[in-house]
Amino acid sequence: MLGRFSPQRYSQCFKTFVKTFEQARFKSNESIRRFISENTETGGQLSLTPEVKLRLLTSNCRFWRERPELWPFDDPYWAIYWPGGQALSRYLLDNPDECQGKTVLDVGSGCGASAIAAKLCGAAHVIANDIDEVAAIATQMNSELNSLEPPVCVSENMIASQIQGVDLILLGDMFYDEALATSLHTWLDNCVRTHGTRVLIGDPGRAQFQSHDIRGLLRPLVQYELPESVKEENYGLTCSRVWLYHPQFFK
């Protein structure tokens, strides 16, 4: 059968396949955007960054009460504005020099709040990295809500990858699992020592973070008291901090 295809015919079929694939992906993205619009609520006003609008899963939304098995995607971490991400975004907005003119990578970007904060602060280039492809679409929608061009969204796992040209790495609420914390520690240490990357971490003091070895290599920059509604949603966590990770400070 392949012998019947001329190079021109093969090229034409390949282009048709690519066009069909792109159309299917566009339709898929459009359906996900519609689902997000219908099943989230524009919020953020009661967070640490009321000036940033986000589409979030709230108590007014259907799936706040619906059976979890009816949710059609992976767990919607992108639909929650986690307290570490709130602190990190607040810190950036209060200290725009951290981002201005720089290339920023937001790892585990979720709803995209920290990436959006970086863009609002004048970052030259922003990459939002989350392995959930739905998070990328949510980030694009949230950027549009804030009248911003969306950041570059990358769904591949960038932890342990070699990165160059990144001035600042942001991590909010990523130290919730010991194995993940350990892989992050190794990767961040390489980024700092090899490329001199600046690393900011937002965390509300979860046990896995407090007890991990990386905790000894962090310098606290700021602490925020969480709004009452955020405290209630996060099982009694009361504060969230931003930390600077820079091992040479401790040599």
Automatic annotation (TrEMBL):
The keyword Nucleus does not apply. Belongs to the methyltransferase superfamily. ETFBKMT family. One of its GO terms (biological process) is methylation. This is Electron transfer flavoprotein beta subunit lysine methyltransferase. InterPro entries: Ribosomal_L11_MeTrfase_PrmA (IPR050078), SAM-dependent_MTases_sf (IPR029063). It comes from Takifugu rubripes. GO terms for cellular component: mitochondrial matrix. It holds the Pfam family PrmA. GO terms for molecular function: protein-lysine N-methyltransferase activity.
